[in-house]
Write a sequence for this structure.
């Protein structure tokens, strides 16, 4: 958690709540258990980083999770930890609604990040996002530019307005947190993007996408 202390201090407003997508079956999978443990450490770190003696930041009750794979026992375990469960599959389309929000999305599909960006497509809203998830730089490097722009246009358009810091690698957790970065969106960088970038706000449909990596609402 100390590795993200500096990146989390850089956004103008520290996160006051958290949304976690795609944690996975932590009752069966050790990697998912490590990711859950890291999430709990992050919430502690955020509470301690506010300088208010732990009275601010993100208490577990303000952290909401969703994964269609959760079993009833896993859902009960999360509630016992004081965390909340989102009532339905949002497909990543979660607006910040004016509150600085940390999105914890380790190893999620590209469409989920793209949907999240679309749902907050304005400088004011994006500047309130912090995303811990797959490196946007890595996505750009691995995808042909025409595929990135066609299927994940909001990721493509925001690349010049995002800052990211990679999580340090650790030999014990190479498969758990590989290719994971902390992303934030400085308001001044977003405002430097051309006005045309913000004019196009069509909802992503992914009709031509061959590798969607997302469970749609109703497919659970």
């Amino acid at each position: 958690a100390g590795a993200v202390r500096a990146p989390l201090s850089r956004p103008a407003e520290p996160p006051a709540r958290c949304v976690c997508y795609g944690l996975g079956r932590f009752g069966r999978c050790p990697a998912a258990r490590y990711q859950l443990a890291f999430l709990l450490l992050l919430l502690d770190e955020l509470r301690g980083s506010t300088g208010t003696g732990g009275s601010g930041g993100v208490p577990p009750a303000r952290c909401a999770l969703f994964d269609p794979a959760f079993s009833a026992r896993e859902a009960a375990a999360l509630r016992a930890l004081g965390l909340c469960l989102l009532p339905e599959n949002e497909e990543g389309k979660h607006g910040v609604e004016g509150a600085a929000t940390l999105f914890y999305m380790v190893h999620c599909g590209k469409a989920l990040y793209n949907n999240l960006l679309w749902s907050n497509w304005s400088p004011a809203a994006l500047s309130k996002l912090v995303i811990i998830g797959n490196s946007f730089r890595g996505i750009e490097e691995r995808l042909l530019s025409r595929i990135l722009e066609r299927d994940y246009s909001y990721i493509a358009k925001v690349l010049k307005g995002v800052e990211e810091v990679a999580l340090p690698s650790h030999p014990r957790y190479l498969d758990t947190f590989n290719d994971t970065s902390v992303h934030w969106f400085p308001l001044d960088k977003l405002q430097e993007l051309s006005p045309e970038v913000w004019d196009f706000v069509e909802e992503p449909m992914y009709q031509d996408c061959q590798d969607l990596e997302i469970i749609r609402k109703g497919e659970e």
About this structure: The chain has one domain: 17-49+56-197. The first helix runs from residue 5 to 9.
